[in-house]
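Example 3.2
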Amino acid sequence: QVHVVESGGGLVQAGGSLRLSCAASGRTVAYTDLAMGWFRQAPGKGREFVANIGWNGLNPDYADFVEGRFTISRTSAKNTVYLQMNSLKPEDTSIYYCAARRTVLGSTSTDAYDYWGQGTQVTVSS
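Structure, written as tokens:
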């Protein structure tokens, strides 16, 4: 079992920045064996892919709407994945979820992930 916990959400004005954090831990699964992803879900909409990163910190992938504004990274020492979000827009308002899968590379599909956090709210005001 892997425990995933997000933090760092909040309220920010359009054009501002936030950094989300995701801590992943497990008794029998090493953090370095996990590929990680960020997804988001706005009210009345489905959960959509935002970014993912491989187990070794390589092969980051982003949704088209990111347009260079977000950066995903991970640190092995702190077992943490970050999502740095800059130039935020009101349409970025969503609950952001972190997810983990026990393989080398991340995925853009929600079905590919085995473990999910509870989510953190991001609200961008205009």
